[in-house]
Design goal:
Length: about 70
């Protein structure tokens, strides 16, 4: 199930692994997130938001394929 963009815990949509969401502006977050750290995320492509940005995101941990490759 996609993670709400304000949820304090991120959940991998492939295997269910969890991790706390980093605080906004946390410079140490790059070590745990992004392509080198493994966690990747995108806006939910199946959501039809009323505004421009989706309210949910799809996440994948470092042990699962990146979300941009999932379909």
């Amino acid at each position: 199930m996609p993670t709400h963009y304000r949820d304090p815990i991120l959940v991998c949509d492939t295997c269910g692994a969890t991790t706390p969401r980093p605080a906004p502006g946390d410079k140490n977050a790059k070590a745990a997130f992004g392509h080198p750290g493994g966690w990747t995320g995108i806006g939910n492509p199946h959501e039809k938001p009323l505004r421009i940005a989706p309210r949910t995101q799809i996440w994948a941990c470092g042990n699962c394929p990146p979300v941009y490759a999932l379909d």
